[in-house]
Design brief:
Elements (H helix, E strand, L loop, with lengths): L2 E2 L4 E4 L7 H6 L2 E6 L12 H10 L3 E4 L8 H13 L3 E5 L4 H13 L4 H10 L12
Parallel strand pairs: 2-5, 3-4, 3-5
Antiparallel strand pairs: 1-2
Helix pairs in contact: 3-4, 4-5
C-alpha cells in the first residue's frame, strides 16, 4: 500500500524487484530504500531492487535506517529529495520509518510541526516516536 505524504513523496512497505516496472509506469523517478539488507528472512537485497530500478530508468538511493531515526537520516532524506527530478517512493518494512524520516527532513526545512503531524496521521502514521525531534 502506497501512502502519499506530499506532492513528491509517497511511502510504502517492502518493494519487490518485480514491482519496479509498475512504479515506472506510475511516474516514480526515484526509489529511496530505508531498509537495511538482512533485516528479515526473504527480504530482497537492495542491490536487486537497485538493478531493477536502473533497468526501468528509475534512480535509486539507499538510506538504510538501522536503529532509530536521527538527524543524519533526515539529512540523507533531504539530500535524496533534493536530487529527485519527479515523484519519489521511499520504502521500509511497513512505510513507517520512511514516513517518520520524511517528517524529520521536512522539519529541518521549516515545515510547521502541526502540518507534519497532520500529514502523518492522515496516512496512519503515529508521530509520537519523533515528536521530541520536531
Amino acid at each position: 500500500m502506497t501512502r502519499q505524504l506530499d506532492d513528491v513523496l509517497s511511502v510504502s512497505g517492502q518493494v519487490q524487484p518485480g514491482d519496479i516496472a509498475a512504479l515506472a509506469r506510475e511516474g516514480i523517478t526515484l526509489i529511496i530504500n530505508n531498509r537495511p539488507d538482512g533485516e528479515e528472512p526473504g527480504q530482497p537485497r537492495g542491490l536487486e531492487i537497485e538493478q531493477a530500478a536502473t533497468a526501468a530508468g528509475i534512480a535509486y538511493r539507499a538510506v538504510p535506517i538501522i536503529r532509530g531515526i536521527g538527524p543524519a537520516d533526515a539529512d540523507a532524506m533531504n539530500d535524496a529529495l533534493a536530487a529527485a527530478s519527479g515523484k519519489v517512493l521511499a520504502f521500509c518494512r511497513s512505510g513507517t520509518r520512511s514516513a517518520l524520516t520524511w517528517a524529520l527532513a521536512k522539519a529541518d526545512k521549516g515545515m510547521p510541526r502541526d502540518e507534519i503531524e497532520r500529514r502523518l496521521v492522515a496516512v496512519g502514521v503515529d508521530p509520537t516516536p519523533i515528536a521530541h525531534l520536531l
